[in-house]
Specification:
The chain is an alpha/beta fold and about 325 residues long. Helix content is about 65%, strand content about 10%. It contains eleven helices and five strands, in the order αβαβαββαβααααααα.
Length: about 325
């Protein structure tokens, strides 16, 4: 067994872990204790006069909650929902109001839309007819499988990067990159096999889920390894803070990102966790609509991690060679 730490060190670590409880409990509670929509995109099919009335009412009763976008027909609104341009919408009809929702886009958004549709139908004095144009499957009844897949890939990838940083520094850079690439591909395949074939939570999209999982695993590894290579153990702490704590609490897995407080909502859209969750959700339920932006964010994080690794590995050698050349230039010739 390794030697015991001194009492002073153990007391310091105890205090640090107590502080960690404050940070974790604070961040998770602050982000999700009072979910309120912020500019939730909603479509509407109605005459201009009615749209104006509804907009005026929303500004009074729910200021800033919804962002209305007018569409010419039920078909165009349905297409906009399936293309992930809006979360749902209201269609004015003579006999009733039609509320189009997409529960696959998130339960919180679905509930907010139902509340909105109920209020609009009361205002227009119409009975409300709801229709789910992108329903969740029975294997993913709460829509959380995209989040659990993300978490299942992230944590092992973070630990793998820690192992590469701490225990593989004796290997060449090519070997470490090779192991990281093999891990990422394997993680994507096994992760997709698990959620698609074995558990059956996200069936029918094995190859797409495997590719997304491999990209996300590589991103988590490179970001963690890169930060650790540059900042050492402080880099590992920073990677854990960004990816595991802040990234998970603001990724939009349990509630849509539009329901987060302003500060956390902006951060969550920039970190790779949320884009991965959206990419998986949109791949499974929306035929891959609007996944390019999410994948671009993930790829940029992977590229940033790669740059950090290469900088940390190559810069010391380049600086040493530069110093040798400068010293040789300054030394007088015999």
């Amino acid at each position: 067994m390794p030697a015991s730490l001194s009492p002073r060190v153990l007391v310091s670590l105890t205090a640090a872990f107590i502080a960690a409880v404050f940070v974790f409990a604070g961040v998770y509670t602050a982000t999700q204790h009072n979910p309120t929509p912020h500019q939730l995109r909603v479509g509407i099919v109605a005459p201009d006069l009615m749209v104006g009335i509804i907009n005026t009412g929303l500004k009074v009763k729910a200021p800033g909650y919804f962002s209305l976008r007018q569409y010419p027909s039920e078909a165009s609104l349905t297409s906009a929902i399936k293309d992930r341009k809006v979360y749902g919408g209201y269609v004015y009809r003579k006999d009733s109001g039609l509320l189009l929702t997409a529960s696959a886009a998130g339960k919180a958004a679905d509930a907010a839309l139902l509340s909105l549709g109920t209020e609009v139908s009361k205002t227009l004095r119409q009975p409300l007819v709801p229709r789910d144009v992108a329903p969740l499957t029975s294997h993913d009844s709460q829509g959380l499988s995209s989040y659990t897949y993300q978490y299942g890939v992230l944590v092992p990838s973070f630990v793998f990067a820690v192992l590469i940083f701490m225990f593989a520094h004796g290997l060449s850079l090519a070997w470490r990159f090779g192991l990281s690439a093999a891990y990422s591909v394997g993680a994507g395949i096994i992760g997709a096999l698990t959620v698609d074939q074995i558990v059956g939570a996200l069936p029918g999209h094995f190859f797409a889920l495997a590719a997304l999982g491999a990209l996300y695993a590589a991103t988590a590894v490179l970001v963690t390894w890169g930060l650790a290579a540059v900042l050492k153990y402080a880099g590992l702490a920073l990677a854990g803070l960004l990816l595991i704590l802040v990234g998970n609490s603001t990724g939009g897995g349990s509630i849509n990102q539009e329901f987060l407080p302003d500060f956390f909502r902006n951060i969550g859209q920039a970190l790779p966790n949320g884009p991965f969750i959206r990419a998986v959700r949109d791949t499974v339920y929306f035929d891959g609509a609007n996944t390019h932006r999410a994948m671009l964010v993930i790829a940029l994080w992977a590229l940033g991690g790669l740059v950090l690794v290469l900088t940390a590995e190559k810069l010391p050698g380049l600086m040493a060679r530069s110093k040798k050349r400068s010293k040789a230039t300054l030394e007088p010739t015999a």
